[in-house]
Amino acid sequence: MSCCSACGQHACACGCGPLTRTPLSLYNRPGLDSLSYRVGRYADFRATMQADLSDASLPALSGLRTREADDPSIALLDTWAVGAEVLSFYQERIANEGFLRTATERRSVLELGRLVDYRLRPGVAASVYLSYTIDQNSGPVTLSAGSRAQSVPAPGEQMQTFETAEPLDARYEWNAIKARKTQPVEISVDTIAGLDTIWISGINNNLKTGDRLLFLFGEDLAGGVQAIRLVRAVETDAQNQRSKILLQALEDATVQIVAAATKAIGALEFSSDGSNRDFWLGRIEKIRADLLLGGSNWGSSNELIGHYVSDFNQDNNPAAVTQFLNDVKAAFGISSPSSSGGGFQFLFDALIAPPTLQPANRFQLVRDAATALGVSSDTRPQMLLQFEPRLRDTFYQAWTSVSYGNPSPALKGVFAMRVTASLFGYNAPKQITLTQVPKDGGGTTTTTGYTDWTIDEAADVLSLDNAYDGVLAGGYVAIQRHSNDGMQEIETTVAQVQRASVHPRTDYGMSSKTTEITLVDTGKGTTVGGAVQPPIWSVPTWDVIRSATVFAQSEALTLAEQVLTEPVGAPDSSDTAPRQTQDDATHLTLDSVVDGLKSGRWVIVEGQRVDVPGTDAVTAAELVMIAAVEQSQNKRLSGDTVHSTLVLANQGLAYRYRRDSVVVHANVVRATHGETRNEVIGNGNGAAPMQTFTLKQSPLTYVSAPTVDGVQSTLSVSVNDVLWHEVRNLAFAGSAERSFVTNTDNDGKTSVTFGDGAHGARLPTGVENVKAVYRNGIGVAGNVRAGQVTLVTTKPLGVKDVINPLGASGGADPESRDQARRNVPISVSALDRLVSVSDYAEFARSFGGVGKASAVKSGAQVLVTIAGAADAPIDPSSDLYRNLLQAFQRYGDPALPVDLSVRELLALRVSAKVGLAPDQQWEAVEPLVRAAVLDRFGFERRELAQNVYRSELIACVQAVRGVAYVTVDLFSSFDRETLLLGFEGRDKPNNGLERSDAPSLNAAMLKQKLPLNEVLEAFIPVLPTRRDPDDPLTILPAQLAYLLPDIPDTLLLQEAT
Description:
Elements: H1 42-52, H2 72-97, H3 106-115, E1 127-134, E2 141-143, E3 148-151, E4 161-164, E5 168-170, E6 177-178, E7 182-183, E8 197-201, E9 212-217, E10 225-237, E11 242-247, H4 252-269, H5 277-292, H6 301-308, H7 319-331, H8 343-352, H9 369-372, H10 379-387, H11 395-401, E12 411-422, E13 431-438, E14 444-451, E15 461-463, E16 476-482, E17 490-507, E18 510-519, E19 527-528, E20 531-532, H12 542-547, E21 549-557, E22 562-563, E23 587-589, E24 602-608, E25 619-632, E26 643-648, E27 663-665, E28 668-673, E29 675-682, E30 692-694, E31 702-704, E32 711-713, E33 716-719, E34 722-726, E35 739-744, E36 750-754, E37 770-776, E38 789-792, E39 799-803, H13 817-830, H14 837-845, E40 850-858, E41 861-868, H15 879-891, E42 898-902, E43 904-916, H16 922-936, E44 948-949, H17 950-958, E45 963-974, H18 976-983, H19 998-1008, H20 1012-1018, E46 1019-1020, E47 1026-1027, E48 1035-1036, E49 1039-1042, E50 1051-1055
Parallel strand pairs: 34-35, 41-42, 43-49, 43-50
Antiparallel strand pairs: 1-28, 1-39, 2-5, 3-4, 3-38, 4-28, 6-27, 7-22, 8-11, 9-10, 9-12, 10-11, 12-21, 13-14, 15-18, 16-17, 16-21, 17-18, 19-20, 23-26, 24-25, 24-27, 25-26, 29-37, 30-36, 31-32, 33-34, 33-37, 35-36, 40-41, 43-45, 44-46, 47-48
Helix pairs in contact: 1-2, 3-13, 4-5, 4-7, 13-14
């Protein structure tokens, strides 16, 4: 380049010479996303060359004075300007591609990563649990590992292939096991007062509301207990030919007193405490008997006890009596709790409740010898069959058909009292009497009077008011009358019929047919303890004849098994009703005996949830592992048979299900996304170093694993049928080691490279001797919904269907350019070991399937928060979550507790008015503004605990071409609690900020000297992992704030007019 003829300086540096534009400055300040590395553009090059035509130092060009474009000389300059333009353009592109921060091509980032031995994460295959259905006519079926099933794609999707990860032994009996739905009714003296339902056989029992049912306990009436309950309603089950009898409820105090009395009687019968034990035993038995037969509880403890005992405040009362008196007092203080709705918060909390964390596999299951080898365990009958192999085909069938258990304590029977009658003479008029009364003046006069007839009745004999042919010998009657002491208390006597006859009777001034009932002699006239026993029915008075009611014509009812309505799962702590079963979150009783299920086996429990407030329309499924199987029966239930009970691992079931909807899928096996390929990939040549072959199918499947990268390849390579091993770098392989490395290019194709004899062995010469077995298929496409995998591809004899009751999870796409750009520097900082707190965050972020991670120290614990790649959901039961925790222990301090949680989402909401530059159209500018904002505030560009600033938003919008200015009308965020309050018609003040936001807000207020409302408008605080200020034991994950691209209305853009 020449110098200026006027000043002698460089022509491009002075201001007095010819006008030159090249070379442009190549200075770039730090932190730019792209480099300016062009020495000039077409116009610059052309202008510079034209200016040089007039340079005085070039006299040979002084004669060239034309500047017309059609002149050949100017055309030549134009050609060179175009060439320089092209060269400078690609020079700038090459310069940008040479730096990690500015590279625009994924391949450039891939190659730059290889310089530091970083490989772009290949993605992770999704995992799912498949439930197979076996044909009814088939025997046991074994599905080998690698059995294939495919999904039915929804519109816009492609079919995905899954293969089982382990063998599965399947049977027809394990297809869809039901939870136990019926069991014999438990009716005892302990439960009769609180009993609300019984089931009887048949649907034509002619029972109606108000009918009385007589319950007899004990072998005879004298030494037993009787109870009468009234029918509230009758429901028939025609399909199962049985009826559900709903009983009228007794008062809460009555139920409590009966329970207290039964407890006291049991204690007194085996006690010698106190001199008045026998007295109290008789009194308490009388109290219980009267209450069970419909007597009054007198409304208070003093009146109740005082009616039966004149002085109950005695110093020498037995301890059981003192406890009984205290229980009676407490019974009258019982009040039913009022129920109140929980609001939308309770509904949402129930819906998002996570399933319990189960063991990763059967090898991680913690087994308990007491459970595995207990008296009720299925291990014992299995061991018995080892001693007696001949019983294998018949033992379980015979064992389960035998009824066990003693009858319900002393329950003799349940009887419907078909007849309600009065005693003969109840409506008899009084006898007319004529009396001669002397007159004052002499003589007499006759006056008329009325008097009761002379009673002509016998003890233990009843005469009813009409003919009742259904009253038979051996039946029972219940006589209800007022007490003999003139008080209004109702007393009921139960007796058995010895004889019954119908005949005419004329007495008490009336005549009609009567049913004469002779009651069974219960020992009247005998002496017990020095006292003569009275007859069961004494000669009545006229008050008794006129007021007594007799319930007769007893008909025995055949009890049926009760339908269990108790939910499956953990009992509701607020439910005070008596438990029907012994099931809980970790115990599930099945509808029959199921043999062959082993501990460590996966099952899926599916059904309609009843723990969601206000609805039972939510269907859910849970994956749980069997810890043990028990074969047992409830010995308290009369006629109960053996049933299988699943003992579930860890905390068992997280939800409660409606019992009749529960299905247990036991033919369950884990499967992963991908399809197995067997292919010959090439011919070995001993003379060729570093032979490379490319797999024909892509992408190669990687499954989640507790490795440094978080993934493990499914590729297996053999040469001459000898297995070779994959290494990360051949530089560290010995000359004789059968090793290879893999490389995946930008198109997802994987190549296999072998050694050169110095670093890794060369391939032996052969024809088609290099073979590969691998699987292809990966990414979020494998995260299919529940019920989509229904096509059986590998179908052994006996396999009928397949389905995935739970959705697939854990699938992640290969690492994108921007993800790799952030992760490459991290790969050289952790170096496969975890020492500092930041190492945990960097290690988690480079783990396959994880998009973002942060870590903080809290005491002796490390709190790690992660977000899935592309913010894909991460379930605590997923392989990714389990393997990351396991990798923390493997590569870090195994004694250091690590708490792993998934990010808390803050959904940004923005509304802005955009002013346009002259001649700009809103229809053309709005998509550009929206794309820029979604990119700048999208998931990929935000970090955990990164605050969001209003100024950041304004700068982003104003950087878009065509925008003149922007006015932000709304700048805030939604958290989950804010949304929940909105469903209840409420909102959180202060933009939905919590007390835990105070440090960020206070710091900003002090620094900027601004009031709270202006601070809230300036930025949105996004919090790191921390402890809940209201509950220090609860750890809150770090927050992540970004705009949701799938909900357009969270970003409202309007043209400013």
